[in-house]
Specification:
The chain is built from five helices and eight strands, in the order βαβααββαβαβββ. It is of the alpha/beta class. It has one domain: Dihydrofolate Reductase, subunit A, CATH 3.40.430.10. The chain has an eight-stranded mixed β-sheet with strand order 4-3-2-5-1-6-8-7.
Length: about 180
């Protein structure tokens, strides 16, 4: 497994702005920190990178945030200027750039499902999806896989984890058809 997409999801499928609604407590934070040790770098699209860097880069003193800030980031972008935050731009064809990282043995984690996932699925690059469902209905916002072409992708549930706050992590290995 060299590319895992991990995202927070509400029970009604919303993935947008999870910092406003996700039940990300100490148990989830500890689990996520433990998981980060399995990866070499974050993979982020430019919009997600901009959002997260504004929120997390100025923070320190929390082991989870510190690990995120220290981890190298690979950013898919057409505008590589002014990235900062321990990042390197991936320009050109994102499928080729990410495939090259995987072939080089770089273990990647991507937070959130975004438009970039269409390219990742088309390139058959995602090895696993980890969804952490919070027991809350948000009502409005971007939904899981909204505007993402999932043609040819199949998910097989391989693991689950229940958190004390009622959240559930579902782990799916991906396979591709066609």
């Amino acid at each position: 497994m060299t590319l895992v997409v991990s995202t927070l999801v509400s029970l009604d499928g919303v993935v947008e702005s999870p910092w406003q609604w996700a039940m990300f407590d100490d148990a989830a934070r500890e689990h996520s920190l433990d998981q980060l040790a399995a990866y070499d770098a974050f993979l982020l699209g430019r919009r997600t990178f901009d959002d997260l860097s504004r929120s997390w880069a100025p923070l320190s003193g929390d082991p989870y945030i510190d690990a995120i800030n220290l981890m190298p980031k690979r950013i898919v972008t057409h505008h590589p200027e002014d990235l900062g935050w321990n990042s390197t731009a991936l320009t050109g064809d994102p499928i080729e750039a990410i495939a090259a990282l995987k072939e080089a043995g770089v273990r990647l984690i991507k937070y959130g499902v975004s438009d970039l996932d269409t390219d990742l699925i088309r390139g058959r690059l995602v090895d696993r999806y980890d969804f952490i469902y919070s027991p809350i209905a948000v009502g409005a916002g971007r939904r899981l896989f909204e505007n993402v072409d999932t043609t040819g992708m199949r998910l097989l549930l391989t693991d689950s984890l229940n958190f004390p706050n009622g959240a559930v992590k579902l782990q799916y290995e991906t396979t591709y058809t066609g």
